[in-house]
């Protein structure tokens, strides 16, 4: 099976799919137009297709037809996420979105690439001694879509548990570079919300109020200091305060103000320490200002952990397929999070990064990264993405 050559023949159509999706992004768990387009592109293939009840997911099962296949044969799960972000696109692409949302994280490529893998594997189902589950997932960007699909049965979609799980995520690494690592690959994602409640009043008479604004300002500074002083530098945690809200007029001391922060870490111990210290700091500072606090710490996505033996095998297979010069082992994990972590908690597998940096961006110039309104991706990598996923599944299901 020469998936690389076959995928190159699919390349123009995969680019068409990707650019259509890119021009019409949808956010969250409800992606009706995206779901419709995926179903259209899968129509006519020998797949058992179902859709989600709580989200607009698509699950497609391909039954291998090799004579050695049985109802106890292995199952491989391949995943592509489909949702965009609430970002107004400023990329300048001819097919840019104009609806106020944007595929700024490359999920349009993930969806098109998974469609490509489905088409490749359907052409060779007579050589598959097992089954493949294609997981088209909404709601990766903070909505826990993978967890919803797991609760709706994606792991057992073929009638028995998946034995291997693989996914690919594009980024702005050099075009075509495939990178991953055994063990922890991406951080957990967690959210901190602090509300400081005081007593509002007139801006000209602060002594008649309990002003929550200076209390919140002190909390912002203290939280940043705490991360560098109370947490072990060899067990890293990153906190970014990204939201400050409060006030309705310049001459009014508000009754309450709030902050929101994203928190990334690789261990439960670091998160436990952060949660304890954040509560202590927020409550202590607010109390000193005659205010009270409401603190919420949500543990949203777990650490993305690649199975070591799976990953060793994946790296070997990718090197044989694409060449040693295109495969790289990451020295350490990265701080962005990923809800494929929920799948990898259930099924041994590997998540892979695929470089999609545009060649028309000079190498000595900074490149807008994932989640930027300016980010652009080179969708000529779609054939490689489809071929890589198809190859891993086919090798696992060889007779």
Structure description:
There is one protein chain. The chain has 399 residues and is α/β, with parallel strands linked by helices. It is built from 9 helices and 16 strands. The protein has helices spanning 3-23, 32-42, 107-123, 145-151, 212-229, 268-288, 308-322, 340-346, 382-396; strands at 48-51, 58-63, 75-81, 131-137, 164-171, 178-180, 183-186, 188-197, 201-202, 237-246, 252-253, 256-265, 292-301, 304-306, 327-329, 349-355. The strands form 4 sheets. It has an 8-stranded mixed sheet, with helices on both faces. Strand 1 and strand 2 (58-63) form a beta hairpin. The radius of gyration is 24 Å and the shape is elongated. It starts with a helix and ends with a helix. The model has no long low-confidence stretch (mean pLDDT 96).
Please give the structural blueprint:
Elements: H1 3-23, H2 32-42, E1 48-51, E2 58-63, E3 75-81, H3 107-123, E4 131-137, H4 145-151, E5 164-171, E6 178-180, E7 183-186, E8 188-197, E9 201-202, H5 212-229, E10 237-246, E11 252-253, E12 256-265, H6 268-288, E13 292-301, E14 304-306, H7 308-322, E15 327-329, H8 340-346, E16 349-355, H9 382-396
Parallel strand pairs: 3-4, 3-5, 5-16, 6-15
Antiparallel strand pairs: 1-2, 2-4, 6-16, 7-14, 8-12, 8-13, 9-11, 10-12
Helix pairs in contact: 1-3, 1-9, 3-9, 5-6
């Amino acid at each position: 099976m020469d998936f690389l050559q076959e995928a190159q023949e699919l390349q123009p159509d995969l680019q068409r799919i990707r650019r259509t999706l890119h021009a019409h992004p949808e956010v969250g768990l409800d992606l009706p137009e995206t779901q419709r387009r995926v179903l259209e592109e899968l129509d006519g293939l020998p797949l058992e297709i179902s859709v989600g009840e709580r989200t607009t997911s698509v699950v497609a099962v391909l039954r291998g037809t090799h004579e050695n296949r049985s109802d106890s044969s292995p199952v491989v799960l391949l995943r592509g996420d489909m949702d965009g972000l609430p970002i107004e696109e400023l990329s300048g692409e001819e097919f840019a979105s104009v609806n106020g949302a944007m595929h700024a994280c490359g999920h349009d490529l993930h969806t098109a690439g998974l469609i490509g893998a489905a088409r490749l594997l359907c052409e060779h189902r007579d050589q598959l001694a097992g089954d493949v589950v294609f997981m088209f997932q909404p709601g990766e960007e903070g909505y826990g879509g993978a967890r919803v699909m797991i609760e709706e049965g994606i792991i057992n979609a073929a009638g028995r548990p998946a034995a291997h799980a693989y996914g690919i995520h594009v980024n702005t690494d050099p075009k075509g570079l495939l990178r991953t690592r055994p063990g922890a690959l991406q951080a957990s994602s967690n959210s901190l919300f602090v509300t400081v409640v005081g007593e509002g009043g007139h801006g000209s008479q602060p002594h008649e109020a309990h002003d929550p604004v200076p209390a919140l300002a002190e909390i912002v500074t203290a939280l940043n200091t705490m991360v560098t002083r109370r947490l072990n530098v060899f067990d890293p945690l990153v906190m970014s305060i990204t939201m400050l809200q409060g006030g309705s007029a310049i001459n009014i001391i508000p009754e309450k103000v709030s902050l929101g922060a994203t928190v990334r870490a690789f261990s439960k111990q670091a998160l436990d320490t952060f949660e304890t210290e954040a509560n202590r700091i927020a409550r202590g500072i607010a109390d000193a200002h005659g205010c009270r606090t409401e603190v919420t710490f949500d543990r949203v996505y777990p650490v993305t952990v690649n199975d070591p033996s799976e990953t060793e095998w994946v790296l070997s297979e990718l090197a044989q397929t694409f060449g040693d010069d295109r495969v790289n082992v990451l020295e350490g994990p990265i701080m962005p999070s990923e809800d494929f972590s929920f799948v990898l908690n259930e099924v041994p597998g590997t998540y892979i990064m695929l470089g999609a940096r545009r060649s028309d961006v000079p190498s000595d110039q900074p490149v807008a990264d994932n989640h930027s309104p300016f980010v652009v991706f080179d969708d000529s990598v779609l054939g490689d993405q489809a071929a890589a996923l198809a190859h891993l599944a086919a090798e696992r299901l060889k007779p």
